[in-house]
Design brief:
Elements lengths: L2 E5 L7 H14 L6 E5 L1 H4 L6 H18 L7 E4 L5 H10 L4 H5 L2 H9 L6 H15 L5 E3 L5 H18 L7 E3 L34 H9 L16 H14 L3 H7 L5 H26 L3 H30 L5
Parallel strand pairs: 1-2, 2-3, 4-5
The chain binds adenosine-5'-triphosphate (ATP) and magnesium ion.
Length: 328
């Protein structure tokens, strides 16, 4: 069972990333053979970026992942741009990707609408690079948040098309989204997902926020004019907090509803704030110990890249031979 997933080094990672993705990465660490996690700096340059900040953000994100429980000895943790095979495979796969399929991607529609100066072709091409990330490792399972479902479907479609034409070389990966918390919403705008690049500042809890800030953001979460702590389609804010509480406490959403039956929103939000602080604070503390040692982080990333390259280069050799590129 091969597990692969990626995470962007843009800005700081948030509670949605932690619950939807990072928590699953840690769980997958011992199920995967191997489990492979990639800091996707090539994806980050599809929207405006600053070179020095990008390099530093890769260290930030790597330190967050290690602080959250990834062990570079037990998984393959690396920086995407270190393994050039991803870029090469992107081009080969582009020849089998329908332009019309890329046109349907909702992430492109949403992100391109937010760009002020340039909608890059890279932003449009993002899902092909993502398909290459996953397919280069013959991945069986991709742990991600709900927002990545459409991209993984496209990845499967590209793999199918490749295999129909050139033989069973690539693997159609399965999506793995968590049962609870696959789509954590912005606390201030609970109809939008919590996001690194979109979203409101007050509604986005960062993994590295200090406990006071975390508590303040959770206590100020938008709820509704009612008073019942229960999930419902027209209670997006409260439903979101119930999911967050369930994950932070390691209990079911039903149990959260039972526990807070009859409580007001104020008490409930206070309890969620405490639970989220309890979840994130140990991660922040470990991060602070790890982040200053950039040489150690770089060492872990380059060791990871070597292991990743060993797998990806085998796939690339098969792909090149099959499609007729290069000498036979
Ligand atoms: P951006 O908005 O720039 O795409 P992001 O917040 O989605 O950034 P990514 O690095 O693209 O961050 O996503 C990393 C992982 O976190 C992906 O698996 C994604 O599905 C998951 N994820 C992102 N946002 C959420 C969310 N609000 N709830 C649950 N999972 C999420
Ligand atoms: Mg994203």
């Amino acid at each position: 069972m091969r597990i692969f997933s990626g995470i962007q080094p843009t800005g700081q990672k948030h509670l949605g990333n932690y619950i939807g993705a990072i928590r699953q990465f840690v769980d997958g660490q011992d199920r995967g053979d191997p489990s492979i996690y990639c800091i996707v700096d090539l994806h980050a340059i599809t929207v405006p970026w600053d070179a020095a900040t990008l390099r530093a953000s890769v260290y930030d994100t790597t330190a967050i992942l290690i602080a959250a429980g990834l062990d570079p000895e037990r998984c393959i943790l690396f920086r995407q741009s270190d393994v050039r095979e991803h870029s090469e495979l992107t081009w080969y796969l582009s020849a089998l990707t329908a332009h019309g399929d890329l046109n349907r991607m909702t992430q492109f529609k949403e992100k391109s609408a937010k760009q002020r100066e340039l909608v890059s072709a890279g932003l449009f091409f993002y899902p092909v690079l993502q398909a290459a990330d996953v397919l280069a490792y013959k991945t069986d399972e991709v742990p991600v948040g709900e927002d990545q479902r459409q991209h993984i479907e496209l990845t499967r479609e590209i793999a199918r098309r490749f295999n129909e034409r050139f033989g069973e070389i690539l693997v159609e990966p399965e999506l793995r989204v968590p049962e609870v918390g696959a789509r954590i919403m912005d606390l201030q705008e609970p109809t939008n997902k919590m996001s690194t690049t979109g979203g409101t500042e007050a509604g986005t809890v960062l993994v590295l926020d200090d406990p006071k800030t975390v508590a303040k953001k959770v206590r100020s979460a938008v709820t509704d004019s009612g008073s019942e702590v229960r999930r419902a389609d027209d209670k997006e804010g409260v439903s979101n907090l119930i999911a967050i509480m369930a994950v932070a406490r390691g209990i079911s959403e039903e149990e959260v509803e039972r526990e807070f039956e009859g409580s007001g929103y104020g008490d409930f939000k206070g309890a969620v704030a405490d639970a989220v602080v309890g979840l994130l604070d140990p991660v922040r503390e470990r991060y602070e110990g790890l982040r200053p040692d950039e040489a150690a982080i770089e060492g872990a990333l380059s060791a990871g890249a070597e292991k990743a390259r060993a797998i990806a280069s085998d796939t690339l050799a098969e792909v090149r031979a099959a499609i007729g590129v290069g000498p036979g």
